[in-house]
Records
---
Amino acid sequence: MSAASWVAEIAGPAPARVSWLAAADGVRLRVALWRPEGAPRGVLHLLPGRTEYLEKYAPLARRLAEAGLAVAGLDWRGQGLSDRDPRVGRLGHVESFADYARDLDALLGWPEATALPGPRLALAHSMGGCIALRGLVSGAFAPDAVLFSAPMWGLAQPAPVLALAGLLARTARALGLGRLAAPGQGGAAPYVLSTAPERNVLVADPRAFDRLRQEVSARPDLAVHAPTLAWLAAALEETASLRRAPALGVPATILLGDDEAVVSAAAIRARAASDPALEVADIPGARHEPLMEPPDGVPGAAVAAALDRFLVRHAPV
């Protein structure tokens, strides 16, 4: 296992370890480990969303390490500096979400993290929340508690629109056209560079959006553009399948912004209502990425308070 690169010019000092791991099918993944001073109070697996990269989470990971946690995260295949399918360029692509399950298995088996003591926690955002839920359902993933952030358990579009999109995506995949960009997703540029700040659906604080734009502008090789039609078909199939999953009984807190417009808030609330181990922490003023909000703003302060409660409950000092 060799050292991987870290983009310090946008994210500051490198974590304690930045390495390459191989998934079971040979895809090379970039993983990182932030370590606290002294013995950790627990190990948190960081599972980002679609288009994201490890450097984006560096400020949060450092705060968690200062709070005593070890944080182990990854770039999913096709994202950040992990291997990408050369046939799709910068588009986000998998044929099946089973590919992401292989990535999660690789992270969970990383010896640098498995050797550390303490409870096992997870922080899973958006698509990472979908992958984590599948792992919980299958039994491949067994953390002591999970903090979900706007988990992708459905997409925020009317049912007829999703049905038509699913039909189009599945048909394109069957015809060998699954690697084309999904229409209407701005495939020519990353979202943060092609959207006006005031219309963005990710963050409410202009400082947070400006930070994301600066990072992608400085290092376009970290960026992911639109999803492919195959990714869209796989995502719709996976979220439909997970709607039928039973209550899991794993303690979890769900961060949900009151201005969520990317994933289905209704699907999140429906699952929380059916599982007494899940609780929703409503984040006032937040959009799809509450974890990226500055801690001195209203949404960021609410996230910090929810995170503190989660750690006190599941990783006490």
Note: The chain has a mean pLDDT of 96.
---
Amino acid sequence: MAAQPIEDDAPPLEQRLFELLQAPRSLDELLDEVEALDLELLEALHAMMNRGLLRRIPRSALVTALASHDKLPILRALVSRLPRDGFAGPPRLVVAARESRLLAFGQSILRIEDALPPATPRPIARVPHALGVLRFGEAVEVTVMGLPLGSSMAPLWAMTLPGTAAVLRLDEDPAPELDSACEEREIPLLHASALLGMVDEGDPTQVAALLRTTLETVGGG
């Protein structure tokens, strides 16, 4: 699975592999889908992994449920409380982190049962963007937004934060601009480390647990 953006001048084979690995694939699937010699493909994968462009994930973690069947109705009720007064549409949960972590986090969301991909492709620029949509039955959804951290991005936060149910921080690096923006708008700011400890954003099972715990915390469950 892709872990961070690939270089613009990467070889065409690596560009093709990176495109395919926006969603997790097995080695057998890549060998079937890519028109290249097996040795060339393996060498390209090895080179990409050495540069930190790819991430291995366990086969058992390819697809996971957001919650058990008995807990889904409770979670649905909690999510129904999240919309903020004066804002239309489904509530938003904003995940703030470095861009490379947001990429992996968004890919993990797509491996959660009943999750939908964003309506628009991920932008090339480092701007706030949708990572996916969590569905809890008819007419109950949560849009998960990605917010790249960095002081240069702070002016764009005003378009994303209003109406947000909560902001979830993956990174522990100081972000005083984000702290102030959330405080000013009375948006709960949660830290993944405080909720679940260290979280591997490339593991859909851990991402599902983090999202579930976040929604329970914000919804009052």
Note: The first helix runs from residue 12 to 20.
---
Amino acid sequence: MKKLINYLGKENVIISFVENGDSKDKTQEKLINFMTYLNESEIVHRFILDHEIDDPRINDTDPYQSLEDNFLSNLRIKFYSELRNRCLDFIYEIPNLNFSNTKVIFFNDIIFEFENIINLLSTNNEDYDAVCAMDFYFNFYDSWVSIDLDGNRLLGDFPYFINKEGQDLYINKKPIRVFSCWNGIITFNGSVFENKKLEFRVENFKNTSQIKMKDYNLKTSVADSYESECSYFHVDMEALGFKKRFINPQIRVTYTYTYYYFAKYFLPNTFELFFYFKNYFKSIFKKRNKNMSDLKSKNLNLSSALYEWYIHRKKNEAKL
């Protein structure tokens, strides 16, 4: 993070952090040390390390049972929405902030290199409303929030996307338009937040006055289980016309160092190619016209896609 700040320029960085007094490890201690660095560097920041927002899932009788039972409930989404909105409050307190010339980055507790973030910010020549990385816990992690333009959830294994266009773009390491994503880290064009047009919220599908996922013709199974404050944020972006939302497949982040090196060095080559051939031969034995039928794609010609993969690899090797 310090390298990223130095690269961007200390005068160009604003940091808002909400820990809410909830950590059970050494997070708060490390944040206090980080604040010392920010103070010494005169970087604009606000950290909330005291408890300000109560978790509505906790009750007086059995708090641990309450948290487990309500993991996917609206109470959980309500809590996280309040935390994220509290973090956003700080940027609205910055006088004369030029939102159109600002990027807002949300970091999860991820392992990253600062070059990852620079590349993420530069996605599509900075022509986007939002862009996510890809996060991994051995396989792709955030399939809950990541939905393609056809309304399909992303897959845990290569090629991750069900539709042919998404697969081809992934293979060629190009930004992929999606309906929603988060994936450990996401950056927004600041204009999304100007005048408080958007905030994180919880949605109750029984309330017909609110926008539902089904309003966007997403798959029923996806729409019925789209319980996330991050997902609803994308719903509202869509409604307001912020439609340029991407995943940048070149940016990979993880939650442990072991998986970071796995995702960076091993996964893009050996492991992904293995899954490609596994699905290919599975489709042959099922006599499904050599399509990845088990991935619900009737359009992907495996021979063509594999050829594109091969050409792409050859070009990279030629550069080396």
Note: Residues 60-65, 204-212, 287-307 have pLDDT under 50 and may be disordered.
